Amino acid sequence: MTAVQAPPAPPTARRRPKAVARVGLYALLAANALVVAVFFVQAGFGANALVLLGRLTGLYAALLMAFQLLLVARLPWLDRRIGMDRLTLWHRWTGFGLLWTLLGHAVFIAFGYAEMSSMDPVSQLVDLAETVEGVLRAVVALALILVVGAVSARRARRRLAYETWHFIHLYTYVAVVLAFTHQVAVGSTFTASPAATAYWYGLWGAALTAVIAGRLVLPLWRNLRHQLRVTAVVPESDHVVSVHITGRDLHRLPARAGQFFLWRFLTKDRWWQANPFSLSAAPDGRTLRLTAKAAGDGSAALRHLQPGTRVFAEGPYGAFTTLHRTRPDTLLIAGGVGVTPIRALLEELRGHAVVLYRVATDTDAVLHDELRELAVAKGAELHLITGPAVPDRLAPGELSRLVPDLTGRDVYVCGPPGMTTAVLRTLRELGVPKQQIHYERFSLAG
């Protein structure tokens, strides 16, 4: 068993990292919304009501667009405290808010100027695009946002491969540039005062800097520094494989048990494909290990990796760590291959732990031998729960019987979506406080 550095003590209820980060984000958005309103008022009310509404919705669309960039910048401080899954979900809902504010901006402006002319709203919009600098760029930006919004709808998203969806989503950055140049060209609020101009340049500059730093500079720097390579590929069962990775100065990589990376294995046929896999062992400063089930082309190809293959890893990501503990004792609930971050967490945890591992059959219990050895070494309880999905072996009655002091523990849950949803519902029914429940839905696109 590899020794790991002891994690810090659980944070107190007065200083929960997730709550601090959320309040900080809400306060940042509210403060900027207030500043935008002040600059809007300072610019004056020289136009009719519809044009004024169009300008106001346009300003808040610009603010939402900048906020969206912050949410997907993958800044380590935010990601460790909130988690990529929740940041991605907030990005998704902010995107729909952006879509509606942009549509409102276009409609109010077209109808407002049409009211002051003899044109119909559509002809007025066409005329503005042809005669006013920057309006055509805004129309193109709106069209791009509409396309991205359409492919991000749940039904469409399920039909697209992640790489296809991601490529289309990159057009959002083109829309951002077009929207900013439109604001510079025709935004009366943008030029109303030196303070307003400085504010908008600062806002867009900070948002774009965050994206470039978090999505490009930091991953490139870390991979150049650590030079990751595959050292071994170990089959765990007929459908599950572990990949061992090493590199330089891994003790400087700020990875924690429970986190995941976006892994790119630089072979000629897979270098372009990124897959999110959790660490299946606590980082020890010398090696990293991921364990994956052959559920798709990317994970199935892991079995054929050769030692020495170069690896490009983005991360570590995720808030599924001991940073968010509020109690000294813990309950870990794993389902299927969701055991991988649970196994890593058990290795790092201090205090008494109970592990519930839910699988259909004994043969599906990958890493069970390692879990059993860890449980013995750490004085933890391990329960392997097998059988079909119905009846629910993790229903309220069963869970209370297995863990009578459930409400006094932090609970970490990782498994298939259906199982995770059912367990979370059970925990709520049993009265486990929300701040003691930790889970993460591992998904690239939300």
TrEMBL record:
<keyword id="KW-0812">Transmembrane</keyword>
<dbReference type="InterPro" id="IPR017927">
    <property type="entry name" value="FAD-bd_FR_type"/>
</dbReference>
<feature type="transmembrane region" description="Helical">
    <location>
        <begin position="49"/>
        <end position="72"/>
    </location>
</feature>
<keyword id="KW-0408">Iron</keyword>
<keyword id="KW-0560">Oxidoreductase</keyword>
<keyword id="KW-1133">Transmembrane helix</keyword>
<dbReference type="Pfam" id="PF01794">
    <property type="entry name" value="Ferric_reduct"/>
</dbReference>
<keyword id="KW-0274">FAD</keyword>
<keyword id="KW-0479">Metal-binding</keyword>
<dbReference type="InterPro" id="IPR001433">
    <property type="entry name" value="OxRdtase_FAD/NAD-bd"/>
</dbReference>
<keyword id="KW-0472">Membrane</keyword>
<keyword id="KW-0001">2Fe-2S</keyword>
<dbReference type="InterPro" id="IPR039261">
    <property type="entry name" value="FNR_nucleotide-bd"/>
</dbReference>
<dbReference type="InterPro" id="IPR013130">
    <property type="entry name" value="Fe3_Rdtase_TM_dom"/>
</dbReference>
<keyword id="KW-0285">Flavoprotein</keyword>
<feature type="transmembrane region" description="Helical">
    <location>
        <begin position="23"/>
        <end position="43"/>
    </location>
</feature>
<dbReference type="InterPro" id="IPR050415">
    <property type="entry name" value="MRET"/>
</dbReference>
<protein>
    <submittedName>
        <fullName>Ferredoxin reductase family protein</fullName>
    </submittedName>
</protein>
<feature type="transmembrane region" description="Helical">
    <location>
        <begin position="134"/>
        <end position="153"/>
    </location>
</feature>
<feature type="transmembrane region" description="Helical">
    <location>
        <begin position="165"/>
        <end position="186"/>
    </location>
</feature>
<dbReference type="InterPro" id="IPR017938">
    <property type="entry name" value="Riboflavin_synthase-like_b-brl"/>
</dbReference>
<feature type="transmembrane region" description="Helical">
    <location>
        <begin position="198"/>
        <end position="218"/>
    </location>
</feature>
<feature type="domain" description="FAD-binding FR-type">
    <location>
        <begin position="223"/>
        <end position="323"/>
    </location>
</feature>
<keyword id="KW-0411">Iron-sulfur</keyword>
<dbReference type="Pfam" id="PF00175">
    <property type="entry name" value="NAD_binding_1"/>
</dbReference>
<feature type="transmembrane region" description="Helical">
    <location>
        <begin position="93"/>
        <end position="114"/>
    </location>
</feature>
